[in-house]
Amino acid sequence: MSRIAYVNGAYVQSREAVVPIEDRGYQFGDGVYEVCEVFRGALIDEERHLGRLNRSLAELRIDAPVKPGALKMILREILARNKVANGYLYLQVTRGVAPRDHVFPQPSVRPSLVVTARQIDPRKGEAAASKGIAVISTPDLRWKRVDIKSIALLPNVLARQEAKEQGAYEAWLIDAEGLVSEGAASNAWIIDESGTIITRQVDHSILRGITRTTLIEIIAAHGLRLEERKFGLDEAFRAREAFITGATTLIMPVVAIDGHKIGGGVPGPVTLKLRHIFHDAAARST
Ligand code: PLP
After folding, report:
1. What is the pLDDT of residue 188?
2. What domain range is 33 assigned to?
3. Which of 84, 148, 232, 261 has its CA at a distance of 20 to 30 angstroms from the CA of residue 200?
């Protein structure tokens, strides 16, 4: 089936969708994005994703491209036109099109909005989760405001490529203190010997994942222990379980870190339970 993209006011065939070469996203990475899971035709945690989008835009002083109601209609239309029941939606806003100059265009130009969606067979994620994934560690080369979901992802791209070349799925980024920031495209979690679930606290050094936020609510609702604090690789190697979270991977067990087996090299029971509960919660909310 041919795919349809929304580009600045028009629904167009994906392969014919284009943006001008002077779009500031193309030239400077001057824009932000969101990726939202689609489950049974519904956008999971839509309000939280739109809230984070607005925050990212405000931090970079980019205007909203359309009114909130119009944006929601566009998102639904893209799901319908692409017949996406399960998969994900991608939304990108850039500062707009202007002659190349580092400073913001003056007078300001209309921000560019692109929305696409892709159908993914949910069995793929389940198959990956039943085996678990391997991660590697690599230095965190990113800028100091990764709490903004900017489209400028070069260090993340290089880290993911490095992971792939080493036979792993994700790269955990190591900060200047030698501690784990997060994954190149996910948040990082471990579960220690006592069953405490540990993930880094939110500040400017990680992205506040929407899956992370929702999972923290689930953890509290189930009376599990959570510590939001930094951890290093030595602690991760000793962990009973480890996992990553993200809108496309959901809760994905990690079974090896830099070649060290975690939990005997099989997905941990608490991780799998949380994945299950997360799915149930998502199903109920649709
Ligand atoms: N951290 C980074 C660097 C990411 O790119 C992502 C997702 O793309 C996440 C964390 C997880 O965020 P979310 O759960 O909102 O998908």
Report:
1. 99
2. 4-120
3. 261
